[in-house]
């Protein structure tokens, strides 16, 4: 049985219609219109134990709504889902003790007091016995490098420290399933690397199943071998990151350094991305790469030439903006 | 000026948009109105007057409290405390409008809606319970009432602004504001006419700005203050307003300086 | 039993945490404490001042009126001390803390209601109890049974307050835009400062059967004075049970319609 199973999951929100203008607000004071929004629309996928899956989609694609249904915050309009064999929105303690949700821009830590107070509260809530709590906390403090942050009021912590304390609070009870929503949002590059290393370690060490959303493609490419992509609440792609890239990366990048100034017109070789001084960057259809590179070498004096894949970031952005849609649908 | 007008209009829409909040607010006000009304009615039972108020005057005092609570005693204090503690003040400072002026525009929007609602409520309430109420005989009483109410509403706004700005120093808490709001309701006469209190306390209060917020305006309406004295009340209100404006702006600037230094 | 002791531990933790949080801004806390004392003392002074001029009000003398006023304070403070968390409900829902409450193995209602224990109100309870003792002194000898009934009905009042707070929490979860419902409750409770007999018949009816301010604040004092029939005593307890059951259902329904904030 899969660890997470989602079947035709659908969520429709009702929102009051808001019209601009004074008289419209007077009118809507007395008579309010309701609008229906399909946030998640017949979504199905399943995840096995121990997998670390990237959950991708543009803003408003329904990622967070899906995570919230899988955590039991929201009751779906229709469809079914199970996590560890249980229906999340029944909110049974047996399931709640075994998973955790981390929302990047939210905090469960009490603001005015040190983070360890919240840790103790979570110990009471999850009913973690003292020795187990000590062991778990010790491990998290070491992995997340938290020893200096424990006794400082949370409001005095930096964003990176707070995020790490947040992760610790969520993982004290050693959840088998972890939902991470934008865990590296707003962090600097070094801190992002630390968080990623931690997630990978936690996944490996505890065989935890992790579903992760992120706008940061480094998170996805470094952590997730499998990705689920959704758009407007529907499944767009489910499979390995490599084949997603292969499917959508119909181009390769040629970087070339000329011995003299770069020729003005290179359009016969490929789409010019940049051209200045003695260096040019070109986008060339995948199947024509060797042919075009040979043509380059033949026609001009070339100092150096490299052929690269298009960055994943660009590819995924391309999928969301529609420029890579043809191959997927 | 135009930008403040725009802020006012936007805020007006916002007040109406949050329909349930508005209704709840008003229902609560009517509950207080009803309990005070019945309290005095029970007290007046078998008496001709009380503390120099006729029955109609006392009932009008209670009804007028509802109007003044809605027009004078509303402010942006809690929003200011929230902006200070949430660190949002700096984002207002870069805008080309003064924070005080902006707050006043928003407050005026609320006052507009609440005033309309309050007049409507006391109309319905007075009709339902067939209340006898007092109408001033002289035009000057109406005029004096309107003028003092406008001044007192400005005075309240500035005082509340000042107390809320203490949040710069009280580690981001609304404690002083809470204390101020409770105290001022009694000291201004927004629960009962101040004549009830012992003479000594009355005299002390008269030296403070508080009675000029609610007690004196209503007494002008009830024509218990002579037209000549109305001018004196107006002058004192104006003086207090000047003093409070001065203090508030000094406090505000000093608070901001500390705020910026801490990088809030 | 195991669950009960776990919840007790959680409650103690949250109480300790809120004490620490309150201590982190002592100056602000003094303001809150002072405000509450002002409210009680000013009102008490008002009632006393009134009775300098009249002998009775609606058939009650000063000691009776003081009893009604203090009983109101007892019920009100009981609710304020225990269910203080409700005042943060809107923030909890709006800023998304409620999301965390929902995913953890602890009743989210419990978390919302008992998130903070108000130590400041615990301090305000002191003058109320002292004043109440003074009033008891001035009442004629009434017998232990009357006092026991008074205590039971006061507790019943606090339980009704609990039900109302649960309804308010449900509203906050359901609508998210509602910040004032608890203040309506506060304003309606204002009517409990006086014995509800002084109000007009329509208001009295509403305060007995719809918004049970009379049952919460007036009935305990009337029972102590021997002015409440067994029928009304029975009604008080039944009303409380029915309201609690309804509040529970309403809460569960609200949670199932929760939409979480969008960020």
Model description:
The complex is a heterotrimer of chains A (329), B (264) and C (263). Chain A is an alpha/beta fold and 329 residues long. In chain A, 36% of the residues lie in helices and 29% in strands. Chain A folds into 2 domains: 4-246, P-loop containing nucleotide triphosphate hydrolases (Rossmann fold); 250-308, Alpha-Beta Plaits. In chain A, the strands form 3 sheets. A 6-stranded mixed sheet of chain A has the order 5-6-7-3-8-9, with helices on both faces. In chain A, strands 11-12-10-13 form a 4-stranded antiparallel sheet, covered by helices on one side. A 3-stranded antiparallel sheet of chain A has the order 2-1-4. The model of chain A is unreliable at 323-329 (pLDDT under 50). Chain B has one domain (2-257). The model of chain B has no long low-confidence stretch (mean pLDDT 88). Chain B has helices at residues 2-17, 19-44, 55-71, 77-85, 89-93, 99-128, 139-165, 175-187, 199-206, 215-221, 227-262, and strands at residues 49-50, 53-54. Chain C is globular, with a radius of gyration of 20 Å. The chains are: A alpha/beta (329), B mainly alpha (264), C mainly alpha (263). Chains in contact: A-B, A-C, B-C. The B-C interface holds B 18, 20-21, 24-25, 27-29, 31-32, 34-35, 38-39, 41-43, 45, 47, 50-51, 129, 167, 169-183, 186, 191-192, 196-198 and C 24-25, 27-32, 34-36, 38-39, 42-43, 45-46, 49-50, 53-54, 57-58, 175, 177-181, 183-184, 186-188, 190-191, 193-194, 198-200, 203.
Tally of structural domains of chain B: 1
Radius of gyration of chain A, in angstroms, nearest whole number: 25 Å
Name the strands of the widest sheet of chain A in spatial order: 5-6-7-3-8-9
Question: What is the typical, i.e. mean, pLDDT of chain A?
Answer: 86
């Amino acid at each position: 049985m899969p660890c997470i199973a989602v079947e035709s999951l659908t969520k429709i929100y009702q929102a009051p219609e808001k019209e601009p203008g004074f008289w419209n607000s007077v009118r809507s004071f007395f008579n309010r219109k309701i609008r229906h929004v399909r946030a998640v629309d017949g979504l199905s996928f399943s995840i096995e134990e121990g997998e670390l899956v990237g959950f991708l989609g543009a803003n408003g694609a329904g990622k967070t709504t899906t995570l919230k249904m899988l955590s039991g915050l929201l009751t779906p309009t229709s469809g079914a889902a199970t996590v560890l064999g249980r229906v999340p929105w029944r909110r049974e303690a047996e399931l709640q003790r075994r998973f955790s949700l981390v929302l990047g821009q939210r905090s469960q830590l009490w603001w005015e007091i040190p983070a360890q107070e919240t840790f103790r509260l979570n110990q009471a809530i999850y009913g973690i016995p003292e020795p187990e709590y000590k062991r778990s906390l010790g491990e998290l403090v070491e992995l997340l490098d938290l020893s200096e942050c424990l006794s400082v009021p949370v409001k005095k912590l930096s964003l990176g420290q707070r995020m790490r304390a947040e992760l610790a609070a969520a993982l004290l009870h050693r959840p088998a399933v972890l939902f991470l929503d934008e865990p590296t949002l707003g962090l600097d590059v070094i801190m992002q690397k630390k968080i990623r290393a931690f997630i990978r370690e936690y996944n490996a060490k505890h065989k935890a199943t992790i579903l992760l959303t992120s706008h940061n493609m480094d998170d996805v490419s470094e952590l997730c071998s499998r990705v689920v992509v959704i758009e407007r609440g529907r499944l767009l792609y489910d499979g390995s990151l490599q084949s997603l890239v292969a499917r959508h990366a119909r181009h390769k990048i040629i970087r070339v350094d000329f011995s003299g100034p770069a020729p003005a017109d290179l359009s016969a070789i490929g789409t010019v991305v940049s051209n200045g001084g003695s260096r040019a960057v070109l986008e060339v259809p995948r199947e024509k790469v060797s042919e075009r590179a040979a043509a380059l070498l033949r026609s001009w004096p070339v100092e150096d030439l490299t052929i690269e894949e298009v960055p994943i970031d660009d590819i995924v952005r391309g999928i969301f903006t529609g420029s890579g849609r043809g191959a997927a649908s | 000026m135009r930008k403040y007008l725009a802020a006012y209009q936007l805020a007006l829409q916002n007040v109406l948009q949050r329909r349930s909040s508005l209704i709840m607010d008003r229902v609560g006000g009517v509950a207080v109105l009803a309990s005070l009304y019945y309290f005095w009615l029970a007290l007046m039972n078998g008496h001709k007057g009380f503390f120099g108020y006729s029955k109609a005057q006392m009932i009008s005092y209670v009804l007028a409290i509802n109007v003044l609570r809605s027009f004078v005693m509303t402010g942006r204090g809690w929003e200011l405390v929230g902006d200070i503690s949430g660190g949002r003040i700096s984002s207002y400072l870069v805008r080309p409008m003064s924070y005080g002026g902006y707050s006043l525009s928003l407050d005026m929007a609320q006052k507009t809606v609440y005033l309309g609602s309050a007049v409507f409520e006391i109309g319905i309430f007075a009709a339902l319970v067939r209340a006898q109420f007092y109408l001033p005989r002289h035009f000057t009483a109406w005029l004096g009432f309107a003028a003092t109410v406008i001044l007192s509403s400005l005075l309240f706004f500035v005082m509340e602004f000042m107390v809320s700005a203490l949040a710069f120093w009280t580690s981001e808490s609304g404690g002083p504001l809470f204390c101020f709001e409770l105290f001022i309701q009694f000291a201004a006469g927004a629960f009962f006419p101040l004549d009830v209190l012992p003479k000594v306390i009355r005299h002390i209060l008269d030296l403070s700005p508080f009675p000029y917020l609610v007690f004196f305006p209503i007494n002008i309406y009830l024509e218990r203050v002579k037209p000549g004295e109305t001018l004196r009340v107006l002058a004192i209100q104006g003086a207090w307003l000047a003093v409070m404006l001065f203090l508030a702006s000094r406090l505000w600037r000093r608070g901001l300086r500390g705020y910026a230094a801490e990088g809030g | 039993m195991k669950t009960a002791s776990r919840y007790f531990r959680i409650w103690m933790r949250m109480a300790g945490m809120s004490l620490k949080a309150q201590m982190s801004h002592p100056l602000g806390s003094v303001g809150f404490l002072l405000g509450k004392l002002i409210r009680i003392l000013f009102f008490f002074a008002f009632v006393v001042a009134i009775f300098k001029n009249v002998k009775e009000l609606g058939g009650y003398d000063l000691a009776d009126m003081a009893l009604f006023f203090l009983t109101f304070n007892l019920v009100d403070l009981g609710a304020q001390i225990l269910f203080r968390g409700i005042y943060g409900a809107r923030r909890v829902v709006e800023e998304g803390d409620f999301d965390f409450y929902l995913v953890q193995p602890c009743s989210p209602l419990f978390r919302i209601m008992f998130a903070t224990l108000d130590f400041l109100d615990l301090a305000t309870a002191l003058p109320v109890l002292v004043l109440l003792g003074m009033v008891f002194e001035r009442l004629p000898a009434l017998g232990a049974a009357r006092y026991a009934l008074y205590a039971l009905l006061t507790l019943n009042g606090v339980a009704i307050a609990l039900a109302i707070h649960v309804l308010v929490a449900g509203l906050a979860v359901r609508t998210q835009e509602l910040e004032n419902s608890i203040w309506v409750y506060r304003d309606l409770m204002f009517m409990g400062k006086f014995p509800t007999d002084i109000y007009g018949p329509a208001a009295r009816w509403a305060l007995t059967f719809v918004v049970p301010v009379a049952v919460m604040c007036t009935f305990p004092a009337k029972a102590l004075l021997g002015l409440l029939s067994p029928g009304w005593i029975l009604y008080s307890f039944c009303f409380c049970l029915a309201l609690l059951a309804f509040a529970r259902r309403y809460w569960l329904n609200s949670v199932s319609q929760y939409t979480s904030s969008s960020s």
